[in-house]
Amino acid sequence: MIVTLAGCGGNPEDLSAQKAAEGHNSAYVETGDLAALKKRGTIRFVSVSVLEENVLEQFRRSEIVTQRHYERAMEFARRLKLKPVWMRAQTDQEIIEMLQSGKADIAVDSAIVTEERREQVNFTIPLEKIHQLLVTGRHGPDISNVENLRNVTLMVIKGTVLVDTAKEIIKAHPDANLTLQEIPFSEGVDQFIDQVNRERNAVTIMPSNIAKGVTEYRSDVRLGAQVSDLQSIAWAYRHNSPELGQRLDNFLTSTLVNPIEKRIADWKQIKESGVIRLLTYNGPTGYFLWKGVLMGWDYDLAVAFAEKHKLQLQVVVVPFEHSLVEWLKEGRGDFAGSFSTLTPERKAQGVAFSTPFAEMAEQILSNRKEPPITNLEDLKGRTLILRAFSPFSASAHALEKAGLGVNVELAPPQDSYMCLINKVAEGELDATIMDAHTAQIEASLRPDLIAGMMTSDPKPKGWMVLPENQKLLQEINTFIRDYRKSEAYSELVKHYLEPKSRYLPRMQARIVPGADISPYDDLVKASAAEYRFDWRMVVAQMWQESSFNPNAVSPAGAQGLMQVMPRTAEDMGFDPPLFDPERGIQAGVKYLRWVHDRFPESLDEDEKLWFTLASYNAGYGHLLDARQLAEKLGLDPDQWFDNVEVAMLKLSEPRYFEKARYGFVHGAEPVAYVRNISNLYKAYAEVASGDISRAEGSPSIEAIFIAIPD
Question: Region 634-647: what's the mean pLDDT?
């Protein structure tokens, strides 16, 4: 069975096997690294999941390849600009053999990492930690303790490490009359559980993440004792693929620290979570990065709204080929906007508008070498190219229908507004329509551009929310009405909407997708690859430490881009001074890895990263004190945000630090340090590729699913 899915926000469209396979052949052998995959233009994901016409519904439940794994893999392919091909294997061992032989590229099953498997394939960073559990049906035997198993059949999925666990249990209990039955995984988790339920005294073994997922929608399943130590779940890829491995680790790290949770939350739930999510685009007005500073009209306004309600703002950057409205309706954010025009077309798509926070006319932007477009007569014979999902389409099509001889075309969905502006400036496109302030600012910055006639009266700008979220809409409207009366609002207008704004140099020097994010990207990439970190995180830390100043010296004597103490540098094998950018980066990243590896494997990878950064700033000993205090306070010692960071703050109080092994620490400093780097890292991950070579675009993709014949 082969199923083709649209990969850019559309619904899956089932096609026949013949149609899906037209022009595509995945039955090839490729054992090369990432460069070889890019040359072929495809990336092959393999799993033991069932591939049926309702494959997405399977993923949404509890298949071995979960919805989360699927979405991550599709996003990874999109960022690499490769066509994803999904392949099915019968067993874990077959997956390993397919990777080794070059018949598949990445295994995205919930693969349990073992030392034996490490000798056969490479694994990514751990995605989660699990135990193996005893599982049985509603009327199954007592599984609260392995010692209670008597006259039981252990039904285990064939070709998995779960079989080895079952064999160990049987060997350790020779008098319990335990038998092993290996079951081919041919239909899916639900069918497998049904089979266990039908057998008398049947018990199976499942990874805890899968088992707990099953209990969320089935009441005929009971979970029992743990039968393994804590184990890691990871993706697998073949040996001798270091660039693919580094790219995978960078991508997966960024998704772990910045997950896009789908939830339709009302105001009460938002307040309880402490987080509010803004959906926006990366662009010159709404949201952008200047060096290490997050900026933009929508960003600054959203920060003010979040701070008013004591919420943390999470910015979710939507790919240009996707619609803000669709992501909002899918629950990927709580409110949406990118200096967005409030149009009837958008309202008809099922969103509610806020009170306008600005009004702006639309204006034509064209190449200065062509005749200017200053009135309606100048439009004859010209072509206006608009971005997909453009709010300016109504004005453009009205001009087209007016018999003025103007043509209107839509650009490819992945083209951003800035992409269109660049193409107009380069003469590749004739003209486009923009918000008037954008047209005037870009014309003032770029000699190849000229702003032309207005195509509309001022139109309202604002945010979008779901219609049912009336309390959130009410809070936003109250905030906007009050904010528009404030001096802060006047400053916002001066900063972002006036052509002579002092922020113009920052807008011009903003970080754009695909461009360098620091003067030292190549040096950071080399060290980050050697010590297995996402280079974008290291650049975020470097900005926090030194603002990209290689000659920086702290009051305590820390030196260079990564602000390493001379004694620490010597311990890492680097004699001070550390003002040479390459040596300063190498010393800092090597020390970062040394700190990282001191934490136990039981910690989740994202939490280990936050603990590493806190230790880099405050010292490993103070971090240990904070974890111990967190446990005493009833907080989670394995989670940084809202848990260990709370304890770290308390270690500046005598009643707490006097009982701590390492004493006083100015806790506010590491707390701010980690949060700032976290926010900046998430922002960098949206505009810079995790590749250690060059950045990729964001193509429109479709997936092909292939079941390997038995």
Answer: 96
Residue 230 CA to chain centroid, in angstroms?
A: 26
Q: Is 30 a catalytic residue?
A: no
Check: CB of residue 403 under 8 Å from CB of residue 379.
no
The two tokens of residue 605 are 């990878």
| 3-class DSSP assignment, residue 578 | coil
Helix (H, G, I), strand (E, B) or coil at 286: coil
Q: What angle do CA 532, 130, 73 make, to 5 degrees?
A: 55
Tell me the C-alpha distance between 486 and 252, whole Å.
42
Sequence-separated (6 or more) residues with CB below 8 Å from residue 667: 618, 626, 648, 649, 650, 651, 652
Question: For residue 513, what pLDDT is reported?
Answer: 65
Contacts of 262 (CB under 8 A, 6+ apart): 330, 331, 332
How far apart are the two ends of the chain, measured CA to CA in Å? 12
C-alpha torsion sign, points 408, 413, 417, 422: negative
Give the integer Cα–Cα distance in Å for 301 and 303. 5
Query: What is the Cα–Cα distance from 252 to 248, expressed in whole angstroms?
Result: 6
Which letter does DSSP use for residue 283 in this model? B
**Fold observed for domain 132-228:** D-Maltodextrin-Binding Protein; domain 2 (3.40.190)
Predicted local confidence at residue 563, as pLDDT: 96
Instruction: Write down the catalytic residue from 75, 545, 605, 686.
Output: 545
Residue range 521-687, CATH number: 1.10.530.10
Boundaries of CATH 1.10.530.10 in the chain?
521-687
Specify the DSSP class assigned to residue 622.
Answer: H
What is the full DSSP assignment across 511-561?
B-TTS-SSTTHHHHHHHHHHHT--HHHHHHHHHHHHTT-TT-B-TT--BTT
Per-residue model confidence as pLDDT tens digits over 552-589: 999 889 999 999 999 999 999 999 999 999 999 999 99
Cα 606 from Cα 615, distance rounded (Å)? 14
What is the Cβ-side half-sphere exposure of residue 56, based on CA atoms within 13 angstroms? 14
CA separation, residue 579 to residues 562, 576, 585, 616, 677 (Å): 10, 8, 10, 19, 22
Annotate 362-406 with DSSP letters as a single string: EEEEEETTSPP--SGGGGTT-EEEE-TT-TTHHHHHHHHHTTS--
CA 702 from chain center: how many Å? 19
* CATH 3.40.190.10 correct for 4-125+234-253: yes
362-456 homologous superfamily: Periplasmic binding protein-like II (3.40.190.10)
Cα→Cα distances 378→145, 307, 386, 406, Å: 83, 48, 18, 9
For the stretch 384-407, pLDDT in tens is: 999 887 888 888 989 999 989 999
Residue pLDDT, tens place only, 72-130: 899 999 889 999 999 888 888 899 999 999 999 999 876 899 999 999 999 999 999 99
Q: Which two tokens stand for residue 692?
A: 């250690």
| C-alpha torsion angle, residues 410, 415, 418, 419 (rounded to 10) | -90
The pLDDT, as a whole number, for residue 6 is 27
The whole model's pTM is what? 0.75
